[in-house]
Amino acid sequence: MLKWIKNILSSPKPAGPPKVIKRFDGSEKTITQEVVVSSEGGWLVDVGESQSISLFEIEISDIENCMLTYRADLKSKEVHGQSFLEMWCRIPGRGEFFSKGLQKALKGTNDWASYEVSFYLKRGQQPDLIKLNLAVEGRGKVWIKNIELSYSPFE
Asked: DSSP 3-state assignment of 17?
C-alpha cells in the first residue's frame, strides 16, 4: 500500500537527457519592447511597476508525456518585490496553463545565476504554443540571457 501511494505522489522519471526545442542568444527581439533593451548578451528589463514581460512564443507540435523546462540566466539590481520565470502552455480545446518559478524568485540585487521552471505534460496533453515570460512583481532591473526551452520525455 505504501509503495502504491509513493508511486502516485512521485514525479514521472525522464527517459533520457533533455532535448532542446529552442535557444535565444540575445540577438532576437522580444515581444514586449517598451521596457526591454539589449544588454550584456541578453536583455535588460527595467520596470517601475508590477507586470509580466512577454519575451518569446514558440509554436510547438507532437510533444506530450514529458517535462518542459524553461531555463535562463538572471541577475538583478534593486528589485523591490520579486521577479521570476513564468511559462504558459496553450493546449487546444483545454485552455492555457502556467508554471511560475516562485520558489526561486529574485529579490534585491543579485549576480548572474541559473534559474528554471518546469511544466509536466501527461499523455494526450499536446500544447501548440509555449509562452516564455519574466514576471516582475514590484519594480527594479532584471537582466536575462541564455534562454532555453527543452523537454525530457517520460519513460
From this structure: coil
Between the CA of residue 132 and those of 2, 23, 24, 40, 135, what are the distances in Å? 38, 12, 11, 20, 10
- Looking at the domain assignment, is residue 3 inside a domain? no
Q: What is the pLDDT of residues 49-71, one digit of tens each?
A: 999 999 999 999 999 999 999 99
- Which cell goes with 93? 480545446
Answer yes or no: is 59 within a domain.
Answer: yes
CATH code, domain with 70: 2.60.120.260
Residue 2 lies in a domain: no
How far is CA 80 from each of CA 5, 54, 121, rounded to the nearest angstrom?
41, 20, 34
Based on the structure, what is the number of domains in the chain? 1
pLDDT at 115 over 60: yes
Distance from C-alpha of 46 to C-alpha of 143, rounded to nearest angstrom: 9
Q: What would the mean pLDDT of 3-29 be, rounded to a whole number?
A: 77
